[in-house]
Amino acid sequence: MTDYAGEKPTISKAAWIVLTLCILVGVCEGVDLQAAGVAAPRLAPAFGIDPSALGLFFSSATFGLMFGALVGGRVSDRIGRKPALIWSVIIFGVMSIATGLATDYNFLVAARFLTGVGLGGAMPNLVALVAESVPSNRRSVAVGSLYASMPLGGAVAALVSMLIGTGNDSWRTIFYLGGFAPLVIAPLLYFALKDTKPVQASVATEAPTQRPSVVTVLFGENRATSTLILWGAFFLGLLVLYLLLNWLPTLLVGRGLERSEASQVQLAFNIAGVVGCVVSGGLMDGKRRAIAALGIFGFGAASLAMLAGAPASLVISILIGLCLGATMNGAQAVLYGLAPSAYPLHIRGTGIGSAVAFGRLGSAAGPLLAGVLVGIGLGAGQIMLVLVPIMLVAGGLTALLARRVTSHD
Known about the structure:
- The chain is mainly alpha-helical.
- Helix content is 80%, strand content 0%.
- The protein has helices at 13-47, 51-79, 81-101, 105-133, 139-163, 172-192, 198-201, 214-219, 224-254, 259-284, 289-309, 314-338, 348-375, 380-404.
- Residues 1-8 and 199-208 have low confidence and may be disordered.
């Protein structure tokens, strides 16, 4: 399949349109992914939800996202990226609105699960569309810019939460925003995106006459090692990232900061994440991708170690929070940038979708790990040190993957 930009040193106008639209969808995904967390303090009292029931509300979207990523990637390899993306966007838009309209707990959980299905279905298609629209020498920075839209959307969700007031039903507003925005973007995707049917377009060159099974896609034709490395790196990277997203303020308060100060560090973490994604993508477009990957993950591990030993100072914590945000989010941008190169064009959606789904197991495991470590009496600094070798192993796997994969375009 010929990409929109062709093999040119710069990104074409058509590719910029694709990238811009995908980033807009990514911002919407970021809003929806963070909506539950920012709405929870108001939502829980409104429904009389205890902590265990609130945990199910949170995890329902994660399970939906895993399912949606697997299905959405597979569907895109069959019918094309454009229709698969549009239907995913419509699903998570409608279901986000439905979450805001919920009047009982069961409906709330079901709507959140289906929102996750749409979110998961969109992600592998966004990555594939961007990767296939730009020249290969700009792929990582383009995918990094796409991934940067996620923390940006999370910041939008936090800002809206601050502006909507404290009324009993104010929590519904964030879900309405997270629903109506993608529904507005969906028609733009329909009219502005070129239709892409990777299977049909590649029949003459690389696609087999019969559709390969999922097992063949992931483990056939010497792809087993790359798939397992990709899964392992995604799992470990998201474990660390989501542990920090969920527990960083609590851990900082445990080290002696005020809660308002911990929130400032968390804000610095997210803002730096946007920049880190783009910069990391740019570094991975160079000739020494494995070294760049090791540097990004290694700097992230060093930042964790610095936070473990840092005094309870707001200024120092913010500086380290900036480093953490840039490297932790940048590490994910690196993985998303490498994932398309691990699979040929006609099966790329399935491959990326499986990596996204497997990584979500890590995002669920991270907060659980922190809870276990706190439960056995480890302090905030000790928990940070536990994460250091995990980050280093993830970096080693990513560097190994960078050495193995080559572009299939």
